[in-house]
Amino acid sequence: MKILPVEDAVGMILAHDMTEIVPGKSSGAAFKKGHVIKKEDIPRLLNMGKEHIYIMEFKAGDVHENEAAIRMAKAAAGQGIEFSGPSEGKVSLSSKYPGLLKVNFKALAEINSIDEAMFATLHTNQFINENTKIAGTRIIPLVIDEEKVKVVEEICKINYPIIEVKPLKKLKIGIVTTGNEVFYKRIEDKFGPVIEKKFKELGCSVIKQIFSKDDADMIAESIKTLIDEGADIITTTGGMSVDPDDVTPTGIRKSGANIISYGAPTLPGAMFLLSYIDNIPVLGLPGCVMYNDRTIFDLVVPRLVAGEIVTKQDIVKLGHGGLCTGCETCRYPNCGFGKGGLY
Hints:
The chain is α+β, with helices and mostly antiparallel strands and 343 residues long. It contains eleven helices and 19 strands. It has helices at residues 42-47, 65-76, 105-112, 146-159, 180-183, 191-201, 216-228, 248-254, 288-291, 296-305, 312-317, and strands spanning 2-5, 18-22, 26-31, 52-55, 62-64, 81-87, 90-95, 99-103, 117-121, 126-128, 133-139, 143-145, 163-167, 172-178, 205-212, 233-237, 258-262, 273-277, 280-285. Its EC number is 2.10.1.1. InterPro entries: MoaB/Mog-like_dom_sf, MoaB/Mog_dom, MoeA-like.
């Protein structure tokens, strides 16, 4: 690499983007890679604090920052991802469609252990919308030894994909609403519409809602009816606490479901129940799902809608980061809720 006074660089071609920061107004590339420096550029360059220009002298085995970023992004990206850039040496990765973001965070750590390479992502296992920026990658210097890029590519090959967006399935949802007070129409059901709205956000539709008394056998038969009618996921609402009249967990067991977890290390959502009948998820949703913006529902259900089998260990991991702070204005998923259980 040669260093020239800016006054002597007229006619030279920039090998990298040059950033200009105007406090409170803008930050971006004033001069792009490949720009031929003109005499009239000199005052602006000096105002940017650029009294010298770096002229790249490539040697065999060197890879420019732009090429390196493109190669690393392509090696790491799986389905549902599109690229933008490189800009100032960085390639950004965004989602092509709404879906479940999956990041192999252990392999990501391997990549970031490679000197002079970096790859940053959002947290794994969260629902993201279309055109969401989910990752960015670049190298630290202007050029890097190609062997280092090849190491990154090999890590990606072995652990492919490092990052992907799983499409959500358009599932049919069945709801069993329990409680004598609702069954006998003493009060209006407020839970069902909330569940329907939350599943609609995920591209799913409710095919049927059954109202049941606080009777374990009736709850079990309602679950079986929804399975027979083609429900892909069944939710039961109400009756999930420890009161004597709360028999929903017993009804789920009587339906033949295999209980994976009754209870979750999340607040709100501690009384959540996860079970399966022939790989069909049967959920017991605590009352907090009805009146809290974001709960255990938002941490687990998107994974189910993407076709994943959620295990007991997946639930256990939610404890680290499982406390919602109840912000006055909910910022989820741009907060720590559900983001800590990566180990």
